Amino acid sequence: MIYVLAALLPPVGLLLNGQPFSAIFNLILLVFCIVFGLVFHVLLLVPSAHALIAVHMKREDRKHREVVEAIRQHGPPPGYPR
Fold first, then answer.
1. Residue 82: pLDDT band by 50, 70, 90 thresholds?
2. 75-to-13, 62, 72 alpha-carbon distances in Å
3. What is the pLDDT of residues 21-68, one digit of tens each?
4. The pLDDT value given to residue 79
5. What span, in angstroms and rounded, lies between the C-alpha atoms of 57 and 73?
6. What's residue 64's pLDDT?
7. Cα 34 to Cα 24, 45, 62, distances in angstroms
8. CA-to-CA distance for 25 and 22, rounded, in angstroms?
9. With DSSP H G I counted as helix, E B as strand and the rest as coil, what are the percentages for the chain, rounded to 5?
10. Alpha-carbon distance 77 to 38, whole Å?
11. Residue 5 CB: number of other CB atoms within 10 A?
12. CB of 15 within 8 A of CB of 34?
C-alpha cells in the first residue's frame, strides 16, 4: 500500500514512511519537474521514481537491521561459517 501511495502522491508516501527530509526534497523536485515537465514529459515520472526507490531502500534497511539484531541476540544460524 505504501508503494501505491508513494507512486501517486510521492511526498505523502515518504512522510508516512517516516522520511520527512526525503519528502521535502521530493516536494521541491516535484515543483521543478512539473515546471520543466511541460517540455520534457519524462521528468513527470522522476518524483514518483524517487519516492518508490526511497521507500524500498528504507524498508530494506529496516529488514537488514532486524536480521542483524536477531543475529546479535540469538547468534548466527546453524551451519554459518565463522
1. low
2. 36, 19, 6
3. 999 999 999 999 999 998 999 999 999 999 999 999 999 999 999 999
4. 82
5. 24
6. 97
7. 15, 10, 32
8. 5
9. 80, 0, 20
10. 54
11. 17
12. no
57/60 Cα distance (integer angstroms): 5
SS3 17: coil
**pLDDT of 81 over the 80 cut:** no
DSSP output for 18-51: T-HHHHHHHHHHHHHHHHHHTT-GGGGGHHHHHH
How many angstroms separate the Cα of 81 from the Cα of each of 3, 30, 73, 74, 77?
Answer: 36, 47, 18, 15, 9
Per-position b or e across 24-62, b if 16+ CB within 10 A of its CB: ebbbebbeebeeebeeeeebeebbbebbbebbeebeeee
